[in-house]
């Protein structure tokens, strides 16, 4: 069996359900890599979504937000540059935004649209809407805007993964508080993803 190191996201829904300790069709090492893959979404507070919703070209805010904040969390020293501009205090080259969407969703972003957080989405009445301004080459943004708030950051632990007849992989496991190891509240989840090739590797 070819090893799966990551996937293309198709759906991620938090559910209450009984979980099995059986690894199903995958090894313990593969389950660990799946956990890392899904944590790339939960660490930027994407816990309940479908790829179709995220990749809506008529409403591109969420796809741009994911791509930028994935880099801000994981690759900030390499891809995020400080900058003093009217549009924010940081910038990221558009190629990194495109790269993240291709890697995690197999999506080709044709242009780099400027986007603004939909009204009321943050739940904060006093907060200004988050904006990612594009000049066609790079994005400008305020680093403090998008990840503010008191909600904890969650990671995932995949305990069971199975290949489905439609070609997708179903993963089940637990969400846990990444910032507070003493927090023993864990939320069961199920996620769907499909196999993908990334930089020549089966993923």
Q: What is this structure, in a nutshell?
A:
This protein is of the alpha+beta class and 203 residues long.
Reconstruct the topology from this structure:
Layout lengths: L7 E7 L13 H15 L6 E2 H4 L6 H14 L1 H4 E6 L2 E6 H12 L9 E2 L14 E4 L3 E4 L1 H4 L7 E10 L5 E9 L9 E8 L2 E2 L2 E2 L1
Antiparallel strand pairs: 1-2, 1-10, 3-4, 4-7, 5-6, 6-7, 8-9, 9-10, 11-12
Helix pairs in contact: 3-5
Task: Give the structural class.
Answer: alpha+beta
Per DSSP, the total helix count is 6
Coarse shape: globular
Rg is 17 Å
Cα end-to-end separation: 12 Å
The number of strands is 12
Largest sheet: 5 strands, antiparallel
Helix content: 25-40%
Mean pLDDT: 84
Order of helices and strands: EHEHHHEEHEEEHEEEEE
Stretches where pLDDT is under 50 for at least 5 consecutive residues are 1-6, 14-22
Strand arrangement across the biggest beta sheet: 2-1-10-9-8
Beta-strand percentage?
A: 25-35%
